[in-house]
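lol ok so funny story. i was supposed to be doing the assay writeup but got distracted and ended up predicting the structure for this chain instead. priorities right. anyway since i did it might as well share w the group, maybe its usefull for someone
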Amino acid sequence: MLTSFAAALIALLVTPSFAAPVAPCTVVRKIPHSTSSYTEGFFYRDGKFYEGTGMEGRSSVQVLDAATGKLLQQRDLPSQYFGEGIVDWHDVVYEWTWQSHIGFIYDRISLRPVGQFRYTGEGWGMTRTGKDLITSDGTAILRFRNPETFDQTRQITVREGRESVQQLNELEYIDTGGGGEIYANVWHSDRIARISPADGRVLGWIDCKGLLSASEKVDGESVLNGIAWDAEHRRLYVTGKQWPAIFEIRMPRTEGKPSTKK
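and the output, tada:
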C-alpha cells in the first residue's frame, strides 16, 4: 500500500504543468488619480470608485467620481492603522487592516462607522461574490468567508500548473457570464492573474507592463495594485499605489486553452 507521502508525490508528478495564456493590457482611457493615495483596496459601484488607502497616518476610505477621478468623500482611519482591502456588502463597506487584526464597517452612503470585526492573520485584498467574501493575505491562499460573521467557509490555493502563486494582493471578482473569475494583483508584479474560484487554477494573465513609466512612479513601492469592475457596462479599471492615473483597459479574450510547458 502506498504511503500518503508517496501517493502525494505521484499525484504531483503526473499533474500536467501548464503555462497560462498571457493577454496584453490595452488602454481605453485614463482618469486622474492622486499620487498621495497608497492604493490597497479598489472597487466600482454606481458611477463611483471606492478606494482604500494604506500607510499609518495616511489610511482612509475614499469615494471618487469614476468619470473624473474627483474626490467626493473621505473617511480617515485612526493613525495607528494601516488600511488594506475594502469591499461592499449590501449597504455597508468593509475595510480591514494589515497587521492589527481589526476591521471596520461603514455605512456605504455616508461612510459613517457602524461596526468593527476581528480576524487572525494579515489583511491584504478583499472582494466578493453574490454570497461570499474572498480575501488574500499575501500568500497563495484565497479564503472564502461568511459576509455576516467573517468566518472562513473554505479556501483555495492559487497555482499555475504545479507552481503556487504567492503574494496575492488586491482582488476583484468578475462575473463573465459563463462563470465568475477572481482577478488578483501579485505584489511587485506587472501581471494580473485570472483565477478559477472553484479550484484556484490560473486561467490566464493580463500583462500590464508599461502602463506607467519609471519617471511617473513616486518610488519603488508605486506598484500595480487596484482592480475594479463595472458589471453593467463591462468596463475594467486598474490603478496602483501612488499612481497618477486610473486606466480603463479592454477585457481580455478568454477563448482557448493553456499551452503545455515543454
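Confidence is low (pLDDT under 50) at residues 7-15, 255-262. The longest strand covers residues 168-175.
back to the writeup now i swear
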